[in-house]
Design brief:
By secondary structure, the protein is α+β, with helices and mostly antiparallel strands. It has helices at about 1-20, 80-85, 85-95, and strands at about 25-35, 35-45, 60-65, 100-110, 110-120, 125, 130, 135-140, 150-155.
């Protein structure tokens, strides 16, 4: 009986410690602007996110691609299939006036030795009320949060 009680108490304690909240600075609001359209997401400040643009060296935010669909005109909107096959997506989407907005980003993560993400250059990114300039956002084909508490990941020292 005491083992069961200890297990229950420890489970509650560790669940509480593992939760992220806005009060501890782990979750921040992010507003993305693209061609006059905007979307607001909640981002987790992730100390393990070191994704950077290999050309400029600037940090890259990772966002759930489907959450950003409303930012794009219908003919330039990445589909779920495009997010899973970013190389083919770049061929389809990288045309006309939007050609310079899209690019491929190489990445590594747990379980993925070499992968590619479709990324788009946003006109501006506002992080926790602080407006920034243009920023590169990688479009994740999957949810970035298990419980849906946030829709994007941003590195701790990004200062975007």
């Amino acid at each position: 009986l005491s083992a069961a009680v200890c297990y229950g108490v420890l489970t509650l304690v560790f669940r509480r410690l593992a939760q992220h909240s806005a009060a501890d600075g782990a979750l921040v609001p992010v507003r993305l602007v693209l061609a006059g359209r905007s979307v607001t997401l909640t981002a987790l400040v992730d100390t393990g996110n070191t994704l950077a643009d290999p050309v400029s060296g600037r940090p890259v935010m990772v966002a759930e691609g489907e959450r950003l669909a409303g930012l794009f005109p219908q003919d330039c909107r990445p589909s779920p299939g495009d997010l899973r096959d970013p190389a083919a997506a770049l061929t389809r989407l990288g045309k006309g006036a939007w050609r310079s907005r899209f690019r491929l980003l190489p990445y590594r993560s747990v379980g993925v030795d070499r992968g590619l993400l479709l990324a788009v250059r946003m006109d501006s990114l506002e992080l926790d009320g602080r407006r920034g300039g243009p920023a590169l956002v990688a479009l994740s084909p999957t949810a970035v949060s298990d419980g849906g508490g946030y829709q994007a990941l941003i590195g701790a020292g990004d200062g975007m």
